[in-house]
């Protein structure tokens, strides 16, 4: 009857949970093979590793580093005790015991691992037939106990369902777990798959069962923002729903949970905080240099959706916390939320899907005509670097999308990402920089020529021509995630190419002035404090100069500075734009200026309160106000990074095109349609 159906469902779900554990172990193994951390035992436990992407490697590196940090801190702080214990819940094929044993850190410590019975039986069999593993374990011969699949002098492997708490408690007692010995309990992406009543009971049991205990928890959070929705959907499709998220959606809810279940001390931080605050800077640089990498947004979003928590009860003051207390992280400035703006999906008449993309560029080539080029997206049902150009043209209140034919296609176009397109007239634009891969960015510059457009007609073709560059201008073209902005000096028009990154430099701080129309590199004196190197910033023309806002620095930390490059009698001067409150650091946003107001749109920041919406900065008073974007009318998560935006000043309409990215191992999300925001209310009331 019903009991049989429930049991079959539980068995099915547990099988799906085990498969996620197996995938996680493979990702850890791949990261170890690439040198992110040392772990020669993962290959022995898992066999030949399958290569994962650099983004996945980074994600599993910071996870492994957080667990190791807390485990080794526990062992260090309890070394004066004659005996200690580690209890790893849902350990799967984890190699923690073997690494600690190999490092001679288990002289006084016994490691207990618990997982589903069939998992531990497989692991026990693997240990017995692998000489290098079995040699580290001194077999104690306690397999006669039904739940103990393997027993060594300092290692116990138990097969018990964690939701069956009475059975778990008895099995651990029979295996020798001592409630009076200082104990570290580890739950690494385990409790979230359990019913909340069961995981809560397990947390409370640990607090009550042991006299001196620490708890280490690593899990997901923030389920309701766009990245969180994609993350939840991924696990639901695997039939491994993240059950804890609805009741415990953030760090504060988890801290309160442990406090209510009997824990006296608790410290919790997201993985951006852990990476920044707990990993030495030289180690950060080592990891950042291991592989060509250009998925900063998804890396930081992944880290903002996972946390590490340590809780303790009845531990000596010198033993705790295993993590530093981070109640007010240094990068979280105040937010002054002034309201929200509704997002509406544009009704686009189109037979093409080419606007589902990220890392592209959109430019207004004449009123109501927008040209979108490059990026990575979806075309003809497959994900690829975008070869075709697309135009959006507004006619009778509706947008039409068209694919534009490229005449004389130049191989140097090469389907580039993170380039810029500057319109010099209604029939001529200049493409600067971009990359095909993080190791190939020497793409130069291209002219885009399109016929002059009359009325509501759209350009039928675009002709590409390479730009012959002086050697001095080559460096300006060999970059991506930069900005190219029109400035005026002594009545002459120049393009100011600034910042970005290259295949060698993680964040450039140089610039060049390109004289229009011949695109010659011109030396113009610039004085004042030079901004630190950055990429993925925004740049807007203003009063003949340029406003630079935010960006990502060389250490991969978001920047909150705003600079104005202002024309002077003899050249230009850098000056800082102060805001109140200070701007929350961000990058991968877009920006527009209207009536002495700077609007920053979307992007990525480390603030936990909400995702970036629109920030309006009064360039006269410095007042900085944040507005959330209300996306409840959209049927899909609105990801506002790696997007483009075009501001139509007459209608005070902001059009958001594309955006999204590869969401860690959860799949690629691309905003399917352009989105319209009416900014009339905030531009008149601000």
UniProtKB/TrEMBL annotation:
Write the Enzyme Commission number(s) for this entry.
2.1.1.290, 2.3.1.231
**GO biological process annotation, one example:** tRNA methylation
According to its UniProt record, what is one Pfam family this protein matches?
A: Beta-prop_TYW4
- Which pathway does UniProt place it in? tRNA modification; wybutosine-tRNA(Phe) biosynthesis
Q: How does it assemble?
A: Interacts with RNF144B/IBRDC2.
Q: Which residues does UniProt call coiled coil?
A: none
Main enzyme class? transferase
Q: Which family does it belong to?
A: Belongs to the methyltransferase superfamily. LCMT family.
Q: Which gene encodes it?
A: Lcmt2
Protein name, as recorded? tRNA wybutosine-synthesizing protein 4
Source organism of this protein record: Odontophorus gujanensis
Matching Gene3D superfamilies: Kelch-type beta propeller (2.120.10.80), Vaccinia Virus protein VP39 (3.40.50.150)
Catalytic activity reads:
7-[(3S)-3-amino-3-carboxypropyl]wyosine(37) in tRNA(Phe) + S-adenosyl-L-methionine = 7-[(3S)-(3-amino-3-methoxycarbonyl)propyl]wyosine(37) in tRNA(Phe) + S-adenosyl-L-homocysteine; 7-[(3S)-(3-amino-3-methoxycarbonyl)propyl]wyosine(37) in tRNA(Phe) + S-adenosyl-L-methionine + CO2 = wybutosine(37) in tRNA(Phe) + S-adenosyl-L-homocysteine + 2 H(+)
């Amino acid at each position: 009857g019903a009991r049989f159906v429930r049991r079959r469902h539980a068995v099915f779900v547990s099988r799906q949970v085990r498969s996620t554990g197996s995938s996680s172990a493979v990702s850890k193994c791949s990261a170890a093979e690439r040198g992110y951390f040392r772990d020669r035992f993962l290959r022995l436990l898992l066999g030949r590793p399958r290569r994962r992407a650099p983004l996945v490697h980074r994600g599993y590196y910071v996870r492994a580093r957080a667990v190791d940090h807390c485990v080794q801190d526990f062992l260090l702080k309890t070394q004066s005790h004659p005996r200690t214990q580690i209890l790893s819940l849902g350990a799967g094929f984890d190699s923690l015991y073997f690494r600690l044993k190999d490092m001679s850190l288990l002289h006084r410590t016994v490691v207990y691992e618990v997982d589903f019975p069939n998992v531990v039986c497989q692991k026990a069999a693997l240990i017995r037939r692998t000489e290098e593993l079995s040699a580290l374990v001194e077999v104690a011969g306690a397999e006669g106990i039904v739940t103990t699949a393997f027993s060594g002098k300092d290692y116990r492997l138990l097969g018990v369902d964690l939701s069956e708490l009475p059975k778990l408690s008895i099995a651990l007692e029979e295996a020798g777990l001592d409630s009076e010995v200082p104990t570290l309990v580890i739950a690494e992406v385990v409790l979230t798959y359990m019913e909340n009543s069961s995981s809560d009971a397990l947390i409370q049991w640990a607090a009550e069962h042991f006299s001196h205990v620490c708890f280490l928890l690593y899990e997901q959070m923030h389920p309701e923002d766009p990245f969180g929705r994609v993350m939840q959907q991924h696990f639901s499709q695997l039939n491994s729903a993240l059950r804890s998220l609805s009741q415990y959606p953030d760090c504060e809810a988890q801290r309160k949970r442990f406090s209510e279940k009997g824990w006296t001390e608790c410290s919790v931080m997201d993985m951006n905080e852990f990476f920044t605050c707990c990993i030495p800077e030289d180690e950060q640089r080592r990891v950042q240099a291991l592989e060509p990498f250009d998925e900063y947004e998804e890396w930081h979003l992944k880290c903002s959706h996972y946390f590490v928590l340590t809780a303790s009860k009845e531990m000596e003051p010198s033993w705790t916390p295993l993590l530093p207390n981070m109640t007010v992280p240094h990068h979280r400035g105040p937010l002054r939320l002034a309201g929200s703006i509704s997002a509406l999906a544009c009704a686009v008449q189109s037979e093409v899907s080419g606007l589902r993309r990220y890392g592209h560029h959109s430019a207004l080539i004449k009123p109501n005509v927008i040209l979108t080029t490059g990026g990575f997206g979806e075309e003809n049902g497959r994900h690829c670097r975008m070869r075709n150009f697309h135009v959006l043209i507004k006619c009778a209140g509706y947008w039409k999308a068209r694919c534009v034919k490229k005449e004389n296609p130049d191989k140097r176009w090469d389907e580039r990402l993170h380039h810029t397109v500057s319109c010099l007239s209604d029939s001529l634009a200049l493409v600067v920089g971009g990359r095909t891969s993080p190791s190939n960015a020497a793409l130069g510059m291209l002219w885009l020529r399109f016929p002059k457009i009359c009325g509501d007609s759209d350009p039928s073709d675009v002709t590409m021509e390479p730009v012959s560059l002086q050697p001095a201008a080559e460096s300006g073209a060999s970059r991506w995630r930069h900005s190219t902005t029109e400035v005026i000096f002594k009545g002459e028009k120049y393009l100011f190419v600034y910042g970005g990154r290259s295949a060698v430099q993680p964040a450039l701080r140089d610039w060049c002035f390109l004289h229009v129309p011949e695109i010659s590199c011109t030396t113009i004196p610039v004085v004042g404090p030079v901004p630190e190197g950055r990429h993925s910033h925004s740049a807007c023309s203003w009063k003949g100069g340029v406003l630079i806002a935010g960006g990502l620095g060389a250490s991969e930390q978001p920047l909150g500075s705003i600079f104005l490059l202002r024309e002077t009698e003899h050249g230009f001067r850098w000056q800082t734009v102060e805001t109140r409150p200070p701007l929350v650091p961000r990058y991968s946003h877009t920006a527009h200026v209207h009536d002495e107001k700077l609007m920053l749109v979307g992007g990525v920041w480390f603030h936990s309160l909400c995702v970036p919406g629109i920030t309006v900065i009064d360039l006269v008073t410095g007042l900085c106000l944040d507005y959330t974007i209300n996306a409840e009318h959209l049927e899909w998560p609105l990801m506002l990074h790696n997007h483009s935006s075009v501001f139509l000043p007459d209608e005070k309409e902001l059009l958001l095109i594309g955006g999204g990215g590869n969401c860690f191992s959860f799949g690629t999300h691309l905003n399917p349609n352009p989105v319209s925001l009416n900014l009339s209310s905030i531009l008149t009331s601000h």
